[in-house]
Amino acid sequence: MMKRIPLAGVLGNPIAQSKSPKLHGYWLRKYGLLGHYVPVHVTEDDLESVVRAMPKMGFVGANVTLPHKIAVMQFADQITDRATLIGAANTLTFKEDGRIIADNTDGYGFMANLHQNAPDWDPKAGPAVVLGAGGAARAIIVALADAGVTEILLTNRTRAKSDALRAEFGARIRVVDWVQAGNILEEAATVINTTSLGMVGNAELRVPLDGLRQGTLVTDIVYSPLRTKLLEDADAMGCVTVDGLGMLLHQGVPGFERWFGVRPQVDDETRRVVLG
Ligand code: ATR
């Protein structure tokens, strides 16, 4: 049988805003590879039948974004330990026989972004403050714990969600009330905004930053705008800041490598292409 041109894509609803087609399309061109990467708009009801049909159409894998990251776990044939721990999947790989393997590379992307853009950052230097307790926070908490962060100060508007994460991920997490968030920053060696606050169209993050120490690493998962008010203010206070775009770019690396056989580089040109 003739070898088919490999296809990959990103499944979501909505999907038009996704930067993944630009990212993977650029990598395919850059490395001179045969293949296509397409945005796939799919409803919750159709998710399983669409995914099951994909291998038959020549798809070798897919990224999964909101709101499907949890739902795909229900019918995947194999789930990596990492995805199980996080409770969500963002990267599917289809085996030749159509079996679906679900993985989560968000934590990898988060960590690779920090290593690339703040090479002197030491996860063991002190407590990490995590703002927010949604899906992104779960992947980041698992990644921080893996990297050896000894204490995670977790704060969220809805306290019950932080308490639930503490119950699940254990004693390394200390839950702090949202209104107290400003008061724990002086303890922090690392501060991460995992909420959607500060994103274009959303409210600003209003946590008072005066407690931040010089040299603290501050990062945001929001990348639109690229320089959020949090990063601008932290910068002005002498913190080391890393924007959220790199997390998005790096989370795409393991999938691309598995599907197309080349481990792609994340560099300035990648950033320019995805932003442009
Ligand atoms: P994701 O999967 O991208 O993390 P999510 O699960 O909806 O998305 O989580 C969004 C996060 O942003 C949550 O921590 C949410 O806080 P709540 O758990 O209290 O909802 C936080 N967030 C969103 N809007 C907020 C606001 N106006 N003030 C404070 N936190 C907010």
**First and last CA, distance:** 39 Å
Question: Which CATH class of the largest domain applies here?
Answer: Alpha Beta
The mean pLDDT is: 97
Structural class: alpha/beta
Helicity range: 25-40%
Stretches with pLDDT under 50, minimum 5 residues = none
Q: Order of strands across the biggest sheet?
A: 2-1-3-5-6-4
Radius of gyration: 19 Å
At the fourth level of CATH, the homologous superfamily of the largest domain is NAD(P)-binding Rossmann-like Domain
Which of globular, elongated, flat, extended, rod-shaped describes the shape? Answer: globular
Helical region count?
10
Bound molecules: 2'-monophosphoadenosine-5'-diphosphate
Q: From the 3D coordinates, which CATH architecture of the largest domain would you assign?
A: 3-Layer(aba) Sandwich
- CATH topology of the largest domain: the name is Rossmann fold
* SSE string: EHEHEEHEEHEHEHEEEHEHHH
Number of domains: 2
Largest sheet: 6 strands, mixed
Strand-residue proportion: 15-25%
How many E strands? 12
